[in-house]
Specification:
The complex is a heterodimer. By secondary structure, chain A is mainly alpha-helical. Helix content of chain A is 58%, strand content 3%. By secondary structure, chain B is mostly helical. The longest helix of chain B is centred in the C-terminal third of the chain and has 32 residues. The chains are: A mainly alpha, B mainly alpha.
Chain lengths: 380, 502
Amino acid sequence: MPVIPADLVHLEPSLSVEQVQQRLLSGQTLLSETSDHLIEVVDVLKSYGEVLDAYSINLIYQAEHQFLNPLPIFKYLDGDLNPAKIWRHLNHDRINFEYAEYCQKAMFWHGTGGLDAYLDSEAFAANCRAIMAAKRRRDPLLALLDALFPGFAPELIRSAATTHALGQFWRVMSDLFLDLAAAEADGRVRTIAQVVDFIKDGLVAAAANPIGYGVSIGDEHLWVLPPEAGLTFLVDVAVPYVEAVFLRGMPFLGTVSFNAQAQQISPDQSQFAYGALYADPLPSMGAGIPPSLLMQDMYRHLPERLHQWYLQRTRGEGDVRVKICMSFQRSMFCVTNAAINGTMPHPLDTAERTQQQANAAYALAWAKRLAAARTDCLTA
Amino acid sequence: MLLSLLLLIPFGGTLLLLLWPGQPSPQRLRLLAIGILGLQLAISVLVALRFDPAVGGMQLRELHRWVPGIGLDYALGVDGLSLPLVLVNGGLTLVSAVITRDIDRRPRIYFAMLLLISGAVNGAFLAENLLLFFLFYELELIPLWLLISVWGGANRAYAATKFLIFTAISGMLILGAFLGLALLTGSVDFSLTPVLSDRLAMGGQLVLLVALLLGFGIKIPLVPLHNWLPDAHTQASTPVSVLLAGVLLKLGTYGLLRFGLMLFPEAWVRLAPALAIWAAISVLYGSLAAIAQSDMKRMVAFSSVGHMGYVLLAAAAGTPVALLGAVFQMVSHGLISALLFLLVGIVYRKTGTRDLQVLHGLLNPERGLPLTGSLMIVGVMASAGLPGMAGFISEFLVFRGSIAVFPLATLLSMVGSGLTAVYFLLLVNRAFFGRLAITPATGDTSVDGKLDVQLAPVAPRETLPAIALALGVVLLGLIPSSLGHLSESATTALAQIGVGIS
């Protein structure tokens, strides 16, 4: 038998379906309540908030100012073409906007919720025709491409619509996470339960925010996602985002590989479980999940308290991205926890039996998906 | 006097360490040993600078009568065959001292033994007198036995005793051959003069040569005399393994060329076809045995068995190109095997295991041993003979020089070279690629993917010697003319002895 040094390899227990369901129904947080967890979650969300701010600004810039640009080589510069900024960009002293694009593509590809439904509607097709009519007059290359490949421009406009919607979603989340850090700093938030409630309240407050997107072509203003589409923050963008990025994701090469020929990847896209909550925190340094690039971005904005906390653990600075990823997963479980609590069909303290059963069924559906995720990070 | 310095410095250093007053800390002793070995390496380099590569014979000779009655002279000299090995010895003993860490038991004796071995090896490579060579050959035996049996692994007593018995038999056979030479020729001339039929009949030559072949065959080691080596390596500490593989095995191949081919050229030509087949068997056996290993260190040890077979093949062929290849192979194997043992040692120190069923994904950039893994890939590429590295030029020269003489044995050895890629890719694939783990894989990605592996990081200074060796391996591969320039005259002269006879 091989000798296995026990102190080098740790395997934390994962939560079972019943345990996850029980935590959701009892109002207990998924993440266990410890002071270390509070530091990790609040501080990592603070750095995440700062990164999301940059992501959000860039996604909205791309959707509005790089709209239908066939060669968007300056798309990450937010319109600032200062040579010093270009040099910093080339020298990789910058935010990895590729991760934001990865999330946009994941949302676009999985295509769930009201936004995706609207992108397939006749109203949206009419918007596209109006936009292309205006664009063709000014852009001969696009006019030629549109004539040759009629499906090309609408697909780019769909992608731009998702990009803008994600930018709007992250605008709200960025502010929410920075507010959370401020609330923790002045003592209004002291526990994980309060963190989850704070996020839930933020999500509920923003739930009905309208999602709209228009572009200017020449002196014309044309709607891509008009107000009359009735798209709102929570159900049309936030929930599809959680579905696409937290839960489904995309199979990735790297530390864990999946063999499509051996049918290790489900042919049913809705069964995918490669999202951020399932990711192996060991980095593969790809653009997607495991979110190595996001870890790198958050590392640049790490609060000093969390940085010191990391320095005292395992390899200190050496494996800081792995530790950020572990903290990030804990914080994303808190966000998921808040979203589930916020969308629970009935209050948890209801006395009515049918409502309790509806809640139990809702919690069970979530528990089945979450129990396969990295719930080992919740107990550690 | 320059060559005597190469003995004086390590032997004087041994005495200095043993007699150093007070209780110096292990760290201070280590620094002292590193200083002495650094000086020795500097003198070795000075010898190389004073050496005239155009001359095929011995240079910088020193001759003093010591015990004339038994033919023992203090006769030192250096040629293109011994100079590269003296340099390798200087470099690798220094590496061994540098990578020695955490010696808490008897550090004074440990470093003294290291210096003693280095001096003895220098003496053996520089000796121009058979008895003087034998003295130095035996002198490294006891220190090495001590290094294994005192500072070795759990089963060190068994491995050290096995090593002692095998090597003692090797010494007896070599001494027997040298004394037999005096007995059969009736003279006490122990100089390096070729023994031809006018001095000794072929039967006598064959007997003596076979004794030498067996003696040095144990040291190299060649199959089936290799049995001691994997155990010795497995139980020896990393610095000792580096020294054993990088330097001490070369005593065997050096002896084969210097005292087999050079001393008995006529008998050598008779036995050469059998030796070539022996070499091919050794190469194939070593490679196949390496494939079957699950202990990384045993795998590298068996690869040594295989790779040293190339030297025998080249020596059997005896062409100028093959013999130059033999020198290249000795040097490149010295560097490559030292690098591999050093890296296996780092893996073992950090993970506590060398088991290929247990180690996975060590190349992981944040939680694994990425620099160690990268250097390991360089090492195995070099060992597998990838162009641009030392292993390629050595094997190419050996095969190029041997194929016309012994096509079958050379082709079989080439298969062995291909097998090197097989077992080292197995090693790299199992231990360094995939998801990081230090446990047997369950096959369930949902379990294996959740392992939280917390290895201590490898400090950059711990990998400096490995980086230096890797650079050496690449430099020798890219600029083979450096070594070729030093050795070509000597190996051509050596080849002409055989040609003249045949």
